[in-house]
Amino acid sequence: MSVLADNFTPSTFVDAFRFMGDNFSLLLTKAGETSELAFAALGVALLVALPLGLWLGHKHRGLFIALGTSTLGRALPSIALIAFFIALLGVGFWNILVALVVLGVPPILANAYFAIDGVDRDAVDAARGLGMSERQIVLRVELPLGLPLILAGVRIAAVFVIATATIASVAGGNGLGDIIVSQSDRNVGLPGVLAAALWVSAMALLTALVLALAQRAASRRMSPRT
Amino acid sequence: MVRKHTRRAAKAAFAVSLGVALLIGLVACGGGKKKTTTSTPAGGNNPKIVLGSKNFSEETLLGQLYGQALKVKGFPVTYKPSIGSSELIDTAITSGKINVYPEYTGIIALDLAKVKNAPKSAAATYQAAKKFEETRGLTLLDPTPFADTDTFTMLTSTAQKDGVTKMSDLSKLPSFSYAGYPECQTRITCILGMKQIYGLKHIKFVQLGTISVYTLLDEHKVDGGDGFSTDPQQLQSKYTALVDDKHIFGFQNVAPVVKQSLLSGPGGALLKQTLNDVSAKLTLKAMQQMNKAVVIDKQSVASVAKTFLQANGLA
Amino acid sequence: MTRGWHVAGGPVIPSFGRSSACERSNGWFCTDWLQHHWGDTLQPALVQHIELTLIAVGIGFAIASGLALVGFRWQLFDAPFGAFSDFLYTIPSLALFQLLVPITGIGVPTVEVALVSYTLFILYRNMIAGLKSVPEEAIEVARGMGFTRLQTFVKVELPLAAPAVIAGLRIATVSTISIATVAAFIIPQGLGEPIFTGIQQNLFRTEILAAGMLAVLLGLTADGLLALLQRVVTPWSRIR
Fold this sequence. Notes:
- The complex is a heterotrimer.
- By secondary structure, chain A is mainly alpha-helical.
- Chain A has helices at residues 10-22, 24-59, 63-75, 78-89, 93-117, 121-129, 134-167, 176-180, 189-221.
- Chain A has one domain (11-219): MetI-like fold (Orthogonal Bundle).
- In chain A, α1 crosses α9.
- The longest helix of chain A has 36 residues, at 24-59.
- By secondary structure, chain B is α/β, with parallel strands linked by helices.
- Chain B folds into 2 domains: 49-147 and 254-311, 3-Layer(aba) Sandwich (D-Maltodextrin-Binding Protein, domain 2); 153-241, D-Maltodextrin-Binding Protein, domain 2.
- Helices cover 43% and strands 13% of the residues of chain B.
- Chain B contains 12 helices and 10 strands.
- In chain B, the strands form 3 sheets. Chain B has a 5-stranded mixed beta sheet with strand order 7-6-8-5-9. A 3-stranded antiparallel beta sheet of chain B has the order 3-10-4. Chain B has a two-stranded parallel sheet with strand order 1-2.
- Chains B and C meet through α1, α11 and α12 of B and β2, α2, α8 and α9 of C.
């Protein structure tokens, strides 16, 4: 059943760290490629999803859209999406980026909608009473109050996009995924694969941590003043 | 608005039941012609064959050809396809996870055994490979007539533009990119050979993953790539494989690597005969046509193997 | 059947059948390919995919239930375990599969361990949240009526926690169906396999689209079924 389990010894993990030491610049370059892809996609996703989510939430319209994209986004397998886009557009950085954007939009959109939609009506009414324009209400009242939930959505999207950017190397992308699939390269081997997998996990964890801290800071700022 | 709510709910319930019905229909009909197969009832004395193959279609095809022929003769056969590269599948057989798999003689001699002086003929390569395997409790059965080597394939238009017809010509170019599988970088039958034997200095290695090398060539993502000499695309004038004048790609006939214990046990003679009979039929033309059927004409590997075996009285 | 070329002394090379014009021009909906290969490619992949999902969600649910009960009682367990499963969930699926290979080998167990880990995180969180959301008053009322600890748990807390649990089950199932496509990287099973094959064969569109759509169909149907279940279990709350 298990073809290579016999190759595992605790030293494999030690070798992985040795690989990291020997190939630090390679890992760094590859990590840079993955980051480039992931964060570019995340940026585009934010540009698309955030304004839309804020606007829909403000109008309290489009619950169906928010729920629908959320469910659809979860049901879209990343591999299928990447394969679809490269079959449609050809192999290349921007083509894979489109797939990643499609995956990153749903969590951001849904969370932005729910965040703004759920803001305390009294606060909004008070702001309106003060004569604020709709735009000012969104930016000065609803956005700060909804920030924690929005950041939660960004965090989910970020982890998902980094994970998928890794897989993208299977489809001609670049990045740490290249190393993860090259076990048969004797320069890489199992230790190299482990090293790259650990690096990619670290990247995802670090991003998640940063966003989680931001989320915590945002919600602390919004705690009721006594 | 209770009525609106129930109407929406009814619509949702209907959609879901439609989906479920569709799925049940999809799963149920089609009569489960599963790809994975297990043992046949007959031949209680015959040893269980665990047939491995690597992760590209020609290897899967060879696995099916050998496996189906053995099944017809009463051997219980389990397939273990997609086992990655030669290095990985070699570990699989030496650790006993599989007991038969088809391998290329040049890979064994040059990349696994790492013989010092590259053998100068197909026969010499076969002998060197066989000698190596026999030191490890394995052996090689008869080789096939066809050989499938790696190549340096380019778009014909690019080759003409650069004025290259053989691989030594590549030294004319300041640099070029070559797409190969991960193991290519450390093999004398690949990048290492290009650097050491051809003396080519500036090679940009592009790793091949799931995307086929011909797709990359079509999209101008690489200058040259590792197409296999039996790929059906090689028959198209669009692609050209440069002549390997220094023979780094070696001689690559296929022979089944088999555990010696299988041959010396019960059913061993029949095993040997069956596999050799199949190998004898695998000429270059036969393989090219079968590869074409799978890759270009999208026939399934199993059915192509079956058709071929039946046409030749082996199944 | 054996109309083909006959090379003297060599093998008979039969005709293997030609592809349709649609297949050769790489169309998106080649119905002849779909008809021919439904039984040998798409359907087995679909069945394997369903199997992988059911096993993962089933085992994940069982383990998460046990752990949630523990975590609900003992805060000392909940905090670290919550953090640990959070950690596991953030590891990209391809990386997790590869990290497990040296331990559990190349086979279904590796895939299942990874898939179970992902479901575990979602289910555990939701179960704990569900149990914690039971209002104190409900428990007091039950105690006041003379229920034992166990009776309270079974008759009051569990039903009130059920909506959150089912919501978690819904998310976990759909995510598992989606992640299971990556499993084809390790073993040639599930709907990811035809997608990989399609990519290899010069980006064969029909195969990629068909397998992708089956995965989406599977996910949406599972989601719909569980949404219905959620509604059945909580007739008093609006569906979210």
